[in-house]
Design goal:
This protein is of the alpha/beta class. The protein has a single domain, classed as 3-Layer(aba) Sandwich (Rossmann fold). It has six helices and five strands; from the N terminus they run βαβααβαβαβα. Helix 1 packs parallel to helix 6 and helix 4 packs parallel to helix 5. The longest helix is centred in the last third of the chain and has 20 residues.
């Protein structure tokens, strides 16, 4: 089983990356493997709302006309067996890089061709709050909504806060092992 970890965080050593590393450890202990993409480190533009109605080929063909790294990440999602979407929490919501990516993905998934390889794909959402530690639950509500709109099978949503990161690391390791076992039975 291969799992793509899509990070809305730019720091491969930060709290969100540590949460992903715990998930990846659980996956690897069960014989699965994972690969990561850090959205802020690649080029993903915001949606241009191409035509006068605010749509474009995303709605009519299931593809985006913007030539950046978006299509490559979508292809990696399609080739994976499962996806984990990880975001730091900013203002109780998704990071800006993840929001830009998911805004375009949900538009592409409006068309049946855009959902190919995405609809029904197992997905885990993880929101990591720093600072005061609040905001993970509201962030996960937003994440679940957009992942569901895209057609993912959202299996779990894990809130993490700076104050409980050590505890949640063990939860995420267990979640990774569970995801690997669950994926093997699909």
């Amino acid at each position: 089983m291969n799992v793509l970890l899509v990070y809305g965080s730019r720091n491969p050593e930060g709290q969100t990356a540590r949460a992903g590393a715990a998930l990846a450890l659980g996956l690897s202990e069960m014989g699965a493997w994972s690969e990561a993409v850090f959205l802020p480190l690649i080029e993903v533009e915001r949606c241009r709302q191409c035509d006068d109605n605010g749509w474009g080929t995303c709605r009519s063909e299931g593809v985006c006309v913007i030539e950046d790294d978006f299509a490559g990440v979508v292809e990696r999602i399609r080739r994976s067996d499962a996806v984990a979407v990880l975001t730091p929490v900013y203002y109780g919501d998704l990071s800006e890089s993840l929001r830009a990516f998911l805004d375009r993905l949900r538009r592409v998934c409006t068309h049946d061709d855009g959902k190919v390889g995405i609809a029904g794909k197992p997905c885990i959402g993880i929101a990591v709050a720093g600072g005061g530690g609040g905001g993970s639950p509201t962030c996960l509500v937003s994440l679940e909504r957009v992942l569901g709109t895209c057609g993912f099978d959202v299996l779990d949503l894990v809130p993490v806060r700076r104050q409980n990161a050590d505890l949640k690391a063990s939860v995420l390791k267990t979640t990774g092992a569970w995801l690997a076992r669950t994926g093997d039975k699909r």
